[in-house]
Amino acid sequence: MPAVSPQRIPQWKSWKIAINHLKLGVYPANQFNLITHTDQNSSPVKALVLTASLIAPTEVSRDWNFEKVGACPGCLSDAAEATVRRTVQSLPLEFSRCLDCGLIYQTPRLTRESLSSYFSAETFIQDPNGDNLDELLGYPDYFDWDKSYAVTAKLRLDRIGRFKRPPGELLEIGTATGSFLAAARSFGFRVRGLDLSSRFAAFARKRYDLNIDVGYVEEFTMPRSHYDVICSFGSIACWRDPVQALANIREALKPDGIFVMNHLDIDSLPGKILGNQHFEYNHASLVIFSRRTMRQCLTHVGFEEVYSQSERQYASFGRIAGYLKLKAILKALRGIGLENVTIPLIVPGTVFAICRRTPHSLRRRSDVFDPHFMLAPTMRAA
Question: What is the dihedral of CA 234, 235, 236, 239, to 10 degrees?
């Protein structure tokens, strides 16, 4: 399945989207550009994009463009309603919920080229607005948070070891600093990584002497039936086309291999309590899953969950307060010197899952995506 991108939107629909948004007054007319470029098959295509540089002519947004997503990345339906609509540092941050399958996805979102630039930007890794939790374009300081990620690696490897013992081939998608891969190598796995951030990849190579490729998981050519374990922690929400990415992962796994990942369950109690203020609503999250929508994507490409529980990890008090956007508590923790104290915890609302391949792959979406979620036409947004 091709990636969900402007190339898939007929020109008439692109203009319809633009006209509707202009009528709604969402964006001024001069913020829409019709850009002609060349797709991967070298054929000229036109895409309607929202140019961030016109929204905010600042250093951070100079080269970042946004694109409308014309169909749900899960079931391909074009019926959706807006659930989140705000700006962060003058850049649009908007999410819609598919009215047919319930998947939440960001639209407009950073274009393919801008997404790579974003994840490699200093702003994403260490946002200068770190103290303003509502205006973050990235992490307050990823390297500070990575201290707890490194400790969490052992918890994850212990659970992986119940299903697949080293030695074996292990690939991590979304390696960031490489702390998990370094731990997996010390456990006896032969490791490799894939990340979209060239900056993170360079750091992981230098710090841990790791083999890290840079690319999009949906498109990256991986050896077929090669890996015993493929992991993705915190990155699955950042994929432009999660169905195609999962299909690519399935093909790269050995028949008895396992796919290990975690994801937010937006329908969980924490998701319902935090609502539109949930920390997952950020520019890095292109798709936000529930247990049901994740299961539908997995089933579609030929995966089944064989193990699932609430995520276990280590986190500092400061990281917890920052995640929940508790500004006053974060300030108090800093004042008494407890911001960096790390504790083990169960993370309600975040799912840790281990999946195996099934005999069937790439089923018809109509056979997989839940029709019971469908709303009556009268309940849909105009």
Answer: 160
